[in-house]
Amino acid sequence: MTNSSCATTLSPAVALFHSLSDPTRLTIAARLASGEARVRDLVEGTGLAQSTVSAHMACLRECGLVVGRTEGRQTFYALARPELLDLLATAETLLAATGSKVALCPTYGTTTEEDR
Fold this sequence. Notes:
Blueprint: H1 3-19, H2 23-32, H3 39-46, H4 50-62, E1 66-71, E2 74-79, H5 83-98
């Protein structure tokens, strides 16, 4: 496989992981893993502004990861695909297996100068 065809093949995966790379979107996805929620519920759970949560929900909807169900004047959001639950669970397993190596990664980790 050439680099060009590899990049083309990986593009959807890159987009998927990029959509989940924001801590707020990952928090929202993890919350929705336990069941439906309204934007109001997510605002209360995250402490973020309603406009911020709505913008992240729009991203997740556009990526096809979240769907909304309208009931009266309220919209209840849920994960669009149960496979996302599997992905999140697998990520937790992988993180447990790698220990602190991902967190300590000099490129993407969360280390500070004090940690080094």
